[in-house]
Design brief:
- The complex is a heterodimer of chains A (795) and B (137).
- In chain A, the strands form two sheets. Chain A has a two-stranded antiparallel sheet with strand order 1-2. A two-stranded antiparallel sheet of chain A has the order 3-4.
- In chain A, 62% of the residues are buried.
- By secondary structure, chain A is mainly α.
- In chain A, helix 10 crosses helix 15 (237-270), helix 12 (197-207) packs across helix 13 and helix 36 runs antiparallel to helix 37.
- Chain A contains 39 helices and four strands.
- Chain A is elongated.
- Chain B is α+β, with helices and mostly antiparallel strands and 137 residues long.
- In chain B, 39% of the residues lie in helices and 25% in strands.
- Chain B is built from three helices and five strands.
- Chain B has helices at residues 25-46, 93-112, 126-136, and strands at 2-8, 14-19, 57-63, 67-73, 79-85.
- In chain B, a hairpin with a 3-residue loop joins strand 3 (57-63) and strand 4.
- Chain B is globular, with a radius of gyration of 14 Å.
- Classes of the chains: A mainly alpha (795), B alpha+beta (137).
- The interface between A and B is medium-sized, with 17 and 8 residues.
């Protein structure tokens, strides 16, 4: 290797670089990794780098001694100057500018450059300027590059000069930079501490047409689909095209360089804190990332699914392991998709990796997605690392800063600088995701039952009745039910409690009409007042109370029951204001409302006979089945009672009627398995009422009959009585007249009666339950005896 | 204290295995390997019922004089095996469960990574596992 003569500046520069690369402080051998980084930063084609290494003898020696290193640096300068690489070129090339190493720390570079340029005797300052930090040598390179830029002013032939300057300023095009790594100004280097270069670049770019050429080249690359960019990652050919553009731009740029350098100094000072963070994303970079994001996902608030992101980043030709690591770092919320922030962070990391930066162990704060909803501001450079820091999930924050890679060691504190607090520029995508998640959960339909936690009325009550009525009446709005339709809607809109009157009137309308209308009444009301229904569970203004169950023959000698009987019997086929609208099938509500449940009055329900409403729906659809119902006197009453109870419990959701009915019925069926068939029978009518499945009723009676006959012998009589009452009530339902808003007094009277009926039925129910228990106990004892006897029989 | 944590794939090859005392690592590998039989036994025993009803945490697979081996299996038949030191009597079952839960969460995070091919070795566990091994100490 021939001797190498270096100028003073070169000597200084080289020694600084050597010491930079000499992380092991051997003073003899430079770490290959660092050297390679350096050379990569030199933006030379790989083959050129290899050639350099070979020429300087490192390949032969296997390591970079000081001399080899110096020779290599000289060769880098030669290559960057465009001269062919030859061993003798080391000394033959005169006035060779110092090799430029584009560093990511553009601010530092610019700072150094500025300091360098400002101080002609800057040698000393240069050494002082060598940035301690990441050891990326970027600063050095940067300063060097700037330094070289200065002397280059006159060297038009030195294409790299302008590229050097401008590249540092064109942050976002990190892929571009990579591509143009040989000469192109694309600021690939400037990916990180681009805040400085950013502003530097803009004035710079404006100032020169050459930069526009660069821009053209650059912009030419930004729009291209991602694959192009990524492809160009490893392509050197494009650089050649870029190179051709340089001569044109160089001159312009060179002229502006001095201006730029001056501005750089200013910018540097302004950006002094920001460029300390190598992971910061500049505005241009950010914009580029955003554009890339848009190519995949047009909605900036949306996600990029993992598969799409995988394809995209795979184009960068990074090893899968590193991509995986990058993903782990950038997918902040671990959802397998990338939001805009996450995507930018990932992209930034990829670019960094591509330019030789090691991946951090933890996500740098500046790359953390902001978790606070903030408006997007232009100032992305000052990404609120603090925001991410403070807002990031517990795992992210403080641990990250201390654990940041050596590169960032000096910056965590700087990251906390005050000016980072100001710019909560972007909405946190994470928060977006979080909020989106919540908003997704939130029911879009304000009418959703979720709004009110109040359970829907337990019993099918008026709502079902209304629904059925609706079904029945259909489009026949001239129906007397139509007013009811109107009324329920009114009810729906108003507070249920307040609508009691209307409800009552509506109820009366419904209740007093034929059984059909009666049944449909709750339907209407129910359909309209779906929401109210839920509330109606507790409010008195609910759908028409279920028709009071047919009163069993008075096991209780309540006058009310007697009234009911009378009422039912009398009102059969007649309209009676206030008369039970629907047989109180079951005291639907657990409410101990003692009023008999002449469900005739919805107002009655409104007063709390919601239970009735539950039964009413049952009964209303069952109107046609009332005949069946009455057939099973034994069970009708008990069944209805039980059924009402069941329905009271199970009808909260019955509003959707059909659907609920089936499960409700099934529930009931299941429930009744342990009980007598009464329950099943009861459920059957419930089913009928709910689902309006005409099929339901028929089986019920059958079931009831069979079972009752088989088992409930002792209770038959009582049931018969009760059934009779109920049947009477049921029978009377069809005859319940509808008087719209007419007889308020009658309504109130009916309300009272219904309440009384309700209480009676409740009592009846309890008695039947008790009987049921007794019977079951007897059964159990009998079965036990049977078991005991059986072995003997077998023997 | 977990001295060894292993993630076994469905086909019973290890996706990730790590032990704290680096010596005798082979012994731990062997223990994990033998515990797979016990895991399979437990899975098949419960297999009669629906998979959903099968509990993920398998509990103590088998104890040796020095160590206890715990198992956990996911619904995709990925098994987590943890070897803990018997001398640490303070380790309660709940703690073991929580450790497995953390493991499971980390595993799902790894799965979420689109760059991870199911069946590859897992590289991302180290941090979490280290914390677990140290913390449980």
């Amino acid at each position: 290797m021939e001797g190498l003569t270096l100028s003073d500046a070169e000597q200084k520069y080289y020694s600084d670089l050597f010491s930079y690369c000499d992380i092991e402080s051997t003073k003899k051998v430079v770490v290959n990794g660092r050297v390679l980084e350096l050379f990569r930063a030199a933006q030379l084609p790989n083959d050129v780098v290899l050639q350099i290494m070979e020429l300087c003898g490192a390949t032969r020696l296997g390591y970079f001694g000081r001399s080899q290193f110096y020779i290599a640096l000289k060769l880098v300068a030669v290559a960057q100057s465009g001269f062919p690489l030859r061993v003798e070129s080391i000394n033959t090339v005169k006035d060779l500018p110092l090799p430029r190493f584009v560093a990511s720390k553009n601010e530092q570079e610019s700072r150094h450059a500025a300091s360098y340029s400002s101080d002609s005797e800057n040698q000393g300052s240069y050494s002082g300027v060598i940035p301690p930090p990441p050891g990326r040598g970027q600063v050095k390179k940067g300063s060097v590059s700037h330094d070289t830029v200065q002397p280059r002013t006159s060297a038009d032939a030195q294409e790299p000069a302008s590229p050097v300057v401008s590249p540092q300023q064109s942050p976002p095009t990190s892929p571009h930079t990579w591509r143009k790594h040989s000469r192109h100004p694309s600021g690939g280097n400037s990916e990180r501490p681009l805040a400085g270069p950013g502003p530097f670049w803009s004035p710079f770019g404006e100032a020169q047409s050459g930069s526009s050429a660069g821009d053209a080249v650059w912009s030419g690359h930004s729009p291209p689909p991602p694959q192009e960019n990524w492809v160009s990652f490893a392509d050197t050919p494009p650089t050649s095209t870029l190179l051709t553009m340089h001569p044109a731009s160089v001159q312009d740029q060179t002229t502006v360089r001095t201006v730029a350098s001056a501005t750089t100094a200013i910018e540097i000072r302004r950006q002094s804190s920001s460029y300390d963070d190598p992971w910061k994303i500049t505005d241009e970079q950010r914009q580029y990332y955003v554009n890339q994001f848009k190519t995949i996902q047009p909605d900036l608030n949306g996600f990029i699914p993992g598969s799409a992101a995988k394809e995209f980043f795979t184009k960068s030709k990074l090893p899968i392991l590193e991509l995986s690591h990058i993903w782990e770092l950038s997918d902040f919320d671990k959802d397998g998709a990338l939001t805009l922030d996450e995507f930018c962070a990932a992209f930034h990391l990829v670019v960094a990796r591509k330019n030789g930066y090691d991946l951090p162990e933890k996500l740098p704060e500046s790359l953390m997605p902001k978790l606070i909803d903030l408006e997007d501001s232009a100032d992305v450079g000052d990404q609120p690392g603090e925001v991410g820091y403070s807002g990031s999930p517990a795992e992210a924050p403080p641990s990250k800063s201390p654990s940041m890679p050596s590169l960032n060691q000096t910056w965590p504190e700087l990251n906390q600088s005050s000016e980072q607090w100001e710019t909560f520029s972007e909405r946190s995508s994470s928060s977006q995701t979080l909020t989106q998640f919540d908003s997704n959960i939130a029911p879009a339909d304000p009418d959703t039952a979720i709004v009110h936690p109040v359970p829907i009325r337990m019993t099918p009550s008026k709502i079902h009745m209304q629904e059925m009525e609706l079904k029945r009446t259909g489009s026949d709005h001239t129906n007397p039910t139509s007013p009811l339709l109107v009324k329920p809607s009114d009810l729906l809109e108003e507070n249920k409690i307040n609508s009691s009157v209307k409800f009552a009137s509506g109820n009366t309308v419904d209740g007093y009409s034929s059984s059909d209308s009666f049944t449909s009444d709750p339907e209407q009301i129910g359909s309209n007042v779906t929401r109210q229904r839920s509330h109606s569970g507790t409010s008195p203004d609910n759908t028409a109370p279920p028709p009071p169950p047919p009163r069993p023959q008075p096991s209780h000698s309540r006058s009310s029951s007697l009234d009911m009987n009378r009422t039912f019997t009398v009102t059969t086929g007649q309209q009676q204001a206030g008369v039970v609208a629907h047989p109180p099938a079951v005291p639907p509500r657990p409410q101990p409302s003692q009023a008999p449940g002449p469900a005739v009055h919805r107002p009655v329900d409104a007063d709390g006979l919601i239970t009735h409403t539950s039964t009413s729906p049952q009964q209303i659809p069952e109107q046609p089945n009332f005949a069946d119902f009455s057939q099973f006197e034994v069970f009708a009453a008990s069944n209805v009672n039980d059924e009402q109870d069941d329905e009271a419990e199970k009808h909260p959701e019955v509003l959707p009627a059909e659907k609920a009915s089936d499960p409700a019925s099934s529930l009931r069926v299941a429930k009744t398995d342990s009980k007598t068939e009464e329950k099943t029978a009861a459920s059957a009518p419930a089913n009928v009422s709910k689902g309006t499945t005409p099929l339901a009723p028929p089986p019920k009676p059958v079931r009831r009959r069979l079972k009752s006959e088989d088992e409930l012998r002792p209770e038959v009589d009582e049931h018969t009585q009760k059934t009779g009452v109920l049947a009477a009530v049921l029978a009377s339902q069809p005859s319940i007249p509808r008087s719209v808003g007419k007889d308020k007094k009658a309504i109130q009277a009916s309300i009272r009666r219904n309440k009384e009926t309700n209480t009676v039925l409740a009592r009846l129910n309890s008695e039947l339950q008790q009987q049921l228990k007794d019977v079951l106990e007897e059964r159990i004892s009998l079965e036990v005896q049977l078991e005991q006897l059986r072995p003997f029989s077998h023997l | 204290m977990a001295v060894c944590i292993a993630v076994i794939a469905k086909e019973n090859y290890p996706l990730y295995i790590r032990s704290t005392p680096t010596e005798n690592e082979l012994k731990f590998h062997y223990m994990v390997h033998t515990s797979l039989d016990v895991v399979d036994e437990k899975i098949s025993a419960m297999g009669k019922a629906l998979v959903d009803q099968r509990e993920l945490y398998l509990g103590l697979l088998y104890p040796t004089e020095d160590y206890k081996v715990y198992g956990y299996v996911t619904n995709s038949k990925v098994k987590f095996v943890m070897v803990v030191d018997s001398s640490n009597t303070a380790l309660r079952d709940n703690e073991i469960r929580s450790m497995f839960r953390k493991l499971h969460n980390s595993y799902t995070d790894v799965m979420c990574n689109p760059f991870y091919n199911p069946g590859d070795r897992i590289q991302a566990f180290d941090n979490m596992v280290t914390s677990m091994m140290i913390q449980v100490c």
